[in-house]
Target: DUF488 domain-containing protein
Amino acid sequence: MDDIGVVATIGFTEKSAEKFFSLLKTSNVKRVLDVRLNNTSQLSGFAKRDDLKYFLKTIANIDYVEIPDLMPDGGLLKDYRNKVIDWNYYESKYIELLDRRSAEKKLDKSIFEGGCLLCSEHKPHQCHRRIAIEYLNAKWDTPLPIKHLL
Model:
C-alpha cells in the first residue's frame, strides 16, 4: 500500500499472528478499522479487541479504531451463520442496514485512507468488510482503491 489513499481489508482466520501482522506492516497500514460485531470473544487470541489494540501498536505502530456503523446486526449475522438465510439475502439486508445508518455520512473518509477493515473471514468474497467498503466507495465522490490482504 504505497499509496496512502488505498484501503485494505483483512480477515484473521487461517493466519498465524506472524502472517497477520506481517501483512499489515508490509502493506503500510496506518490503522486497523474493526468492523466485527463480536470482537471481544474471538477464538484467535491475538485478535481479541483489547489484545489486538496492544499488539498492533507495539508490533507495527498501527492504530486501532472500532467502527460500529459498519458492524452487522446481531440477528442478521446469527441467521446467516445458522444457515437460516443465504449469502445473497444477508448481503442485501446488510446493505439496507448501512443505508438506514447513513454510514457514508457519519464516517470520515480520511480514516479509510491507509486503513484496513478487519473481520474474521479469511477471504473477502463472503464477508461484510468487502460489502462495507464497496458500499462506501459507491457513495463517495472519489472511491478508494481496495486491496484485500490474504
